[in-house]
Amino acid sequence: MARAATTADAFNAVAEPRRRQILDELVEGERPVNDLVRELGLAQPLVSKHLRVLREVGAVDVREDGRRRLYRLNGHALKPIHDWVKDYERTWSERFDRMDAVLEDLQRKEEGDGGDGE
Amino acid sequence: MARAATTADAFNAVAEPRRRQILDELVEGERPVNDLVRELGLAQPLVSKHLRVLREVGAVDVREDGRRRLYRLNGHALKPIHDWVKDYERTWSERFDRMDAVLEDLQRKEEGDGGDGE
DNA sequence: TTGACATATGTCGATATCGGTATATATTTC
DNA sequence: GAAATATATACCGATATCGACATATGTCAA
């Protein structure tokens, strides 16, 4: 055994900088492959392959248009990533520190005058 | 040329399910390697290697404690991931759809009676 | 039909990665 | 000092991945 499956999930799909670039382009809207090739400055086959990976994890959808294929973003596939990192936000965000402070304050107050007037 | 650098950034570090597991354990607090070995059920050298990757991207810090090494989470390294994926949230979140509706509504109103009463 | 255009796929080479096993390097305990 | 414990590193094999190039497939235009 060696090297567990990788390209099969959103986390891996997005680990490739070029694939992130592609998604960033598609945020602007539907685009044919050739546009991406020009915008990223990559070889066409390479772009097609990256698109395949993105397609396989559901991050993009394709639509036929004559001899072109229009790729569209499907950000829903990225939700698991968002959900996962979200839980780590408290580690760096000061907002949480301040929220903690407020909560502590509240608790202290409640303990201090348990049930007093107002 | 082949296979661009990978394990060098947070996105790749986190693409490995086991490494995510390790981080998830460390959210609970500082832990020695052996605890992680037990909790993940992996071979010790493998855990050490994954920890090395996480260390190199700054996602964990180490502290010596006798013959043990205590690893601690440093979620700050995950911020770039959060920042990136955040922009895609609008793709799946209904909140944004409703916000768009409200904004459109406001705009329509403003255009409808440009500068009228009140 | 022929040729130009748009895209996907196949093959290949170089290399990175994961996991396993063995071993090195502390550090504590006896 | 010797044995035991905790962790890191080195090496190896299998395989996946990226990028390059060539080529297949499909569509439009003349």
Note down, in words, how this protein is organized:
The structure is a homodimer of 118-residue chains. With 118 residues, chain A is mainly alpha-helical. Helices cover 57% and strands 12% of the residues of chain A. Chain A has helices at 10-13, 17-27, 33-40, 44-56, 79-86, 89-92, 94-112; strands spanning 31-32, 60-65, 68-73. Chain A has a three-stranded antiparallel β-sheet with strand order 1-3-2. The radius of gyration of chain A is 23 Å and the shape is elongated. Mean pLDDT of chain A is 88; it is low at 114-118. At the A-B interface, α2, α5 and α6 of A face α2, α5 and α6 of B. The structure holds a DNA duplex (30 and 30 nucleotides).
The arrangement of helices and strands of chain A along the chain is HHEHHEEHHH
Q: Total number of β-strand segments of chain A?
A: 3
Strand order of the largest sheet of chain A: 1-3-2
* Mean of pLDDT of chain A: 88
Question: How far is the first residue's CA from the last residue's CA of chain A?
Answer: 66 Å
Largest interface: pair, residues per side: A-B, 27 and 27 residues
Q: Structural class of the secondary elements of chain A?
A: mainly alpha
Radius of gyration of chain A: 23 Å
Shape of chain A: elongated
Describe the largest sheet of chain A: 3 strands, antiparallel
Strand fraction of chain A:
5-15%
DSSP helical segment count of chain A: 7
Q: Which regions of chain A contain 5 or more consecutive residues with pLDDT less than 50? A: 114-118
Helix content of chain A: 55-70%
Oligomer: homodimer
